[in-house]
């Protein structure tokens, strides 16, 4: 049954806090996990993300100083990702990046780009008030990156690779580290989350969730 | 090949703007899609979400007035979901809801709850400055709901059901409608996104994405 397969994948996935250091994900398998991020949808199709794969153990050691939620995974993960989201500088309706996405990736002709830009401007200014603060428009980009997060974790789980999503870091300190040690222009990209991949060392705990009746209402 | 199956699912999924009105998703299949939302992970496991399934065509007509991005899907979708995220009122570290989740869902003993609450407080206050505005903490909850969004759309695509995610609505007007017509306490829940499900009427367009080299950097 296909439905059972999908739910089996979802039940296999859990926040795996420590990985078996002796097991490495193959290049082909990790490329497939990244491909799941790449194919993820995003608002207006603007893909406001970038993924840093951190394999250098010296850099992981530095990340560890600012990421209390990744103490067990940073030293043991086969692959460790820091996901970045775009700031408003390149996601505003009038930015070069948006023009690049519409022209070079979506292949829209100029009249379609003009129309789309005006929709997007109204969406940003009126519908969601995204331009009211740097934080509001950055958080909007972050939301999109969580779709890629879900897809990477599921792609992994589908082939029995474990993962751990991490929000446990000090955002300001991490962004400073990204600027200093990773050459990231933090006026354009800032940290959204981290996610570690590898193979579990310990058995997973029982999954806890609210019952369906508590989270769904019918109209 | 398992990897091909997963990527086939991701390629099947696209923003389906109009559905075939004559085809309905079975109760069992839709329950499975909701189960994918239910099993989704969230920060600290707090599941800050609720899903409204809107099948009443009168209510869909009212939603249509405030959702320019759902003009084709609201009248034709087999099932239409409005996803809500929790406001700070029930996601603050000292809220009853957080206590409920830790005690009744996660089954943590009192000392573990106390410890976890202090971590969560530091996370909210210092690491992410989530308590600096109502918007910041609400957007944080919204990010979690996008994980459930990805999972619902993929669960659907896995069994060849189409979907369309929607951010194209006027947030303030929609929240007012949710209060007036859906009896939602908008001091506790507000709209995060909409997502429609059904079966495609038209063939899907070619998927456009940036190449992997443009969105991934290795360290």
Characterise this structure.
Two copies of one chain form a homodimer. The first copy, chain A, has 219 residues and is α+β, with helices and mostly antiparallel strands. Chain A has a single domain (10-215), classed as NADH Oxidase. The first copy, chain A, has helices spanning 2-12, 27-38, 57-64, 88-91, 96-105, 110-127, 134-158, 171-182, 212-215; strands at residues 49-53, 79-86, 162-166, 189-198, 216-218. The first copy, chain A, has a four-stranded antiparallel sheet with strand order 1-2-4-3, sandwiched between helices. In chain A, helix 2 (27-38) packs across helix 7. The model of chain A has no long low-confidence stretch (mean pLDDT 97). At the A-B interface, helix 1, helix 2, strand 1, helix 6 and helix 7 of A face helix 1, helix 2, strand 1, helix 6 and helix 7 of B. Strand 5 (216-218) of chain A pairs parallel with strand 1 of chain B, so a sheet runs across the interface.
SSE layout and pairing:
2 copies of one chain form a homodimer.
Chain A: H1 2-12, H2 27-38, E1 49-53, H3 57-64, E2 79-86, H4 88-91, H5 96-105, H6 110-127, H7 134-158, E3 162-166, H8 171-182, E4 189-198, H9 212-215, E5 216-218
Antiparallel strand pairs in A: 1-2, 2-4, 3-4
